[in-house]
Design a protein that fits this description.
single chain, mainly alpha, 4 helices, about 60% helix
């Protein structure tokens, strides 16, 4: 169960980044219906910035996974045994 939760948390950031790319490529320049209330020309209007922001917010599991020292990464997040 824990492995499933970890896998889902790791899947979120790349998924949102991919959705941002797809929204940028497939976008036709018109504002999205859900973003219609924002003022015209507002740089955060649209789905691409929203997906990029969601991707950045969900980077924490990746930072925890690859940001730890090598000794704890080899032991699964636990400090190495001494003695």
């Amino acid at each position: 169960m824990l492995a499933t939760a970890e896998g889902l948390s790791l899947a979120a950031a790349p998924l949102f980044a991919g959705m941002a790319v797809l929204a940028a490529v497939a976008g036709d320049g018109r504002p999205d219906a859900i973003c219609g209330a924002s003022p015209a020309g507002f740089w955060l209007a649209g789905m691409v910035p929203m997906y990029l922001l969601m991707s950045a917010v969900h980077l924490a599991p990746w930072m925890r996974r690859y940001g730890r020292p090598a000794a704890t990464a080899r032991t699964g997040g636990h400090p190495p045994r001494t003695g």
